[in-house]
Design brief:
single chain; alpha/beta; Aspartate Aminotransferase, domain 1; 2 domains; seven-stranded mixed β-sheet; four-stranded antiparallel β-sheet; globular
């Protein structure tokens, strides 16, 4: 598409947007009675208006039924973890048996590493991106220590080339091949939180398996943002949170994926809980853990119903919108934002965009590396009614989300950003 740097063009795109009605399904924050320009769905998604109804229904059933709500409610609580499977499978390119909403992201990462990071004298190394999100860094570090190993000797962090900001896929594959005989686990973020780079999950997984390693991903910034095909790509395991692009609310219940090939491998070591036990015998309270087939066998406790209701409310919006429509609009929104930013500073004297220019290598987030006065510019954006995200030491993250952001939002951001630079 040939973009134009005019408000009329932005409004034209909004008029023909097949998803334009979905913005009305969300609460847009206001400051002094005026709707803000919200670009931090990559940090906390906006609240769907229907979420309150879903929560109210569960509170009503709790009041009406008490404990009997486990079997008599509108959505019986005993089976609540099953209600979100369809939506999660759609967004991850998985089968329902491979996905489940449970716990929080880092809890799920620790649980799955118990099963899938099994170091030996020969295979013990973990390959990951340098500068991964803190949760991943700490989980990898402490899991390595749990096995009595030295993180400095075990964890191999891959950095971009000199003068570059993102990793080249060929460099990732080359490093996997270099460490192939020692590699136990390859673990990356699906989308790198700082740069917005969408890693080539398929190629990384293939290379990891050729090397004899297990391959896993943190999808916190990927699920609900980019197209995922976890089943076809043969990913071993993945984890995610639900409060970013999934709009399930602060501290929302997270999720996990385990490939179907591991569904009935009950010899995998795991830290078990009663909700992961074979469903039909769960309430017999017998000794001896028998896991449920698939990722459900990694559950620990019964499902948190109220957070589950908030997640379900959002997932049903995703299903109505359709992933193809969402990805198509995301490409246009990010592309339009990139085009406008390049118009602001064509010489790249004041800032550069860290995020890859290739649409297949990014989602909706663009990371703007400020060469000067970064925090002052960010503060000016905030004062002007823009909610974006500042990441130390010098990056402004902007994420136009296709469910509720408009092309006019993007145009207005670029205009305000241009003024803030000056």
């Amino acid at each position: 598409m040939q973009f134009e740097n005019t408000l009329a063009f932005a409004r034209k795109l909004d008029r023909i947007d097949p998803l334009k009605k979905f913005r009305t399904l969300f609460h847009i924050p206001k400051v002094k009675g005026k709707a803000v320009l919200y670009f931090t769905g990559n940090s906390l998604g906006l609240q769907p208006k229907v979420t309150k109804n879903y929560l109210a229904e569960e509170l009503t059933d709790w009041a009406k039924w008490g404990v009997e709500g486990h079997t008599h409610g509108k959505r019986p609580w005993l089976y609540y973890h099953k209600f979100t499977k369809k939506g999660l499978a759609l967004l991850t390119g998985a089968k329902p048996v491979e996905v489940v909403a449970m716990n929080h992201l880092t809890v799920n990462l620790h649980l799955l590493m118990v099963s899938f990071y099994r170091p030996t004298k020969k295979r013990f190394k973990i390959l990951t991106e340098a500068g991964a999100f803190s949760s991943d860094q700490y989980a990898l570090e402490t899991q390595v220590k749990f096995h009595g190993l030295d993180p400095n000797e075990v964890i191999v962090e891959l950095k971009p080339r000199q003068g570059e900001f993102t990793l080249r896929t060929e460099d990732i594959l080359a490093r996997i091949e270099h460490h192939n005989e020692e590699l136990a686990l390859v673990f990356f973020g699906g989308v790198q939180y700082y740069t917005g780079q969408f890693f080539d999950i398929k190629k990384i997984t293939q290379a990891g398996h050729v090397a004899g390693a297990v391959v896993g991903f943190d999808l916190a910034h990927a699920i609900g943002n980019v197209k995922l095909n976890l089943h076809k790509d043969n990913v071993d395991f993945a984890v995610w949170c639900s409060y970013k692009y999934l709009n399930a609310g602060p501290g929302a219940v997270a999720g996990a994926f385990v490939h179907q090939q591991h569904a009935t491998n009950f010899n995998l070591p795991r830290f078990a809980g009663w909700w992961g036990h074979y469903e039909k015998d769960r309430f017999q309270m017998k000794k001896g853990f028998i896991p449920m087939p698939g990722v459900d066998g990694w559950q620990l406790s019964n499902h948190p119903v109220l957070p589950g209701a908030a997640l379900l409310a959002s997932l049903e919006i995703f299903q109505k919108a359709g992933t193809k429509n969402l990805h198509a609009k995301s490409f246009l929104l990010a592309g339009y934002l990139e085009y406008l930013l390049n118009q602001v500073d064509a010489a790249k004297a004041k800032f550069i965009i860290l995020t890859p220019a290739a649409p297949q290598a990014r989602g909706c987030q663009l990371s703007i590396f400020m060469k000067q006065n970064g925090k002052k510019v960010f503060d000016a954006l905030t004062k002007a009614g823009i909610i974006a995200d500042w990441r130390e030491p010098d990056v402004i993250r902007v994420a136009p989300v296709p469910l509720y952001n408009t092309f006019e939002d993007v145009y207005r951001f670029a205009e305000i950003f241009k003024k803030a630079l000056n």
